[in-house]
């Protein structure tokens, strides 16, 4: 597999013993193309913004696709915590108990009957399939601004993708879905991430995925079982 110019610890020599969640390293060709065609900022090589952007992409790849905590090289697994919208921070094991994957990033205090996407009922695998089905070309991320550099990095980000597959009973619209937010990464002396805080409105993401008309459940199930989609993200 070719080297990924935006992500470290993916196809490097040091990954030959890595345990991948879906049996093989993810392929980012489609989402990299989406990123390059849709980004609003092109940061100079070697700039702080480019370094932060690549760190975020590397962190995201490792957290979503590496099964063993010890294979995550962008973080210190023993010190790492993450929090969302001021909620209680959790460590890796606690995050896994919440379902891992997208589940932690979509935690909500809404009553269960109002949850179109209910993280309490999803697993890391089911959430991954739900979102990679809705976004078959991936969900790209770019850094819009970096407010401070290491050891505490504060940045504004934009996530986007095109809803070209069904989501939770809703037909694809083909429209762009965007999410904006703030991320705070704290690094240690070895430049490993030890603390993350995210602030964003999950409704901006889910709202964009619910615009399509209701689907017959068998139609959505047929699309969701496509094995190719399991290797994207």
From TrEMBL:
Q: Which domain of life is it from?
A: Eukaryota
Gene3D superfamilies in UniProt: 3.10.450.50
| InterPro entries from the UniProt entry | NTF2-like_dom_sf, Pathogen-related_defense
- Which protein are we looking at? Pathogen-related protein
Q: What is this organism's lineage? A: Eukaryota, Viridiplantae, Streptophyta, Embryophyta, Tracheophyta
């Amino acid at each position: 597999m070719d080297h990924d110019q935006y992500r470290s610890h993916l196809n490097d020599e040091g990954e030959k013993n890595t345990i991948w969640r879906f049996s093989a390293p993810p392929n980012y060709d489609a989402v990299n193309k989406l990123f390059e065609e849709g980004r609003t900022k092109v940061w100079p090589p070697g700039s702080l913004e480019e370094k932060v952007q690549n760190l975020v992409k590397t962190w995201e790849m490792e957290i979503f696709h590496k099964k063993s905590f010890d294979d995550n090289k962008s973080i210190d697994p023993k010190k790492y915590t993450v929090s969302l919208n001021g909620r209680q921070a959790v460590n890796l094991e606690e995050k896994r108990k919440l379902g891992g994957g997208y589940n932690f990033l979509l935690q909500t205090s809404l009553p269960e009957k109002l949850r179109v996407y209910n993280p309490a009922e999803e697993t890391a695998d089911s959430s991954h399939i739900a979102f990679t089905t809705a976004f078959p070309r991936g969900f790209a991320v770019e850094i819009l601004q970096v407010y401070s550099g290491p050891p505490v990095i504060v940045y504004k980000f934009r996530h986007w993708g095109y809803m070209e597959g069904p989501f939770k009973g809703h037909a694809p619209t083909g429209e762009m879905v965007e999410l904006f937010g703030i991320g705070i990464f704290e690094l240690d002396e070895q430049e490993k991430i030890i603390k993350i805080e995210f602030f964003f409105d999950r409704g901006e993401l889910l709202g964009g995925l619910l615009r399509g008309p209701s689907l017959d459940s068998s139609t959505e199930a047929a699309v969701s079982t496509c094995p190719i989609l399991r290797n994207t993200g």
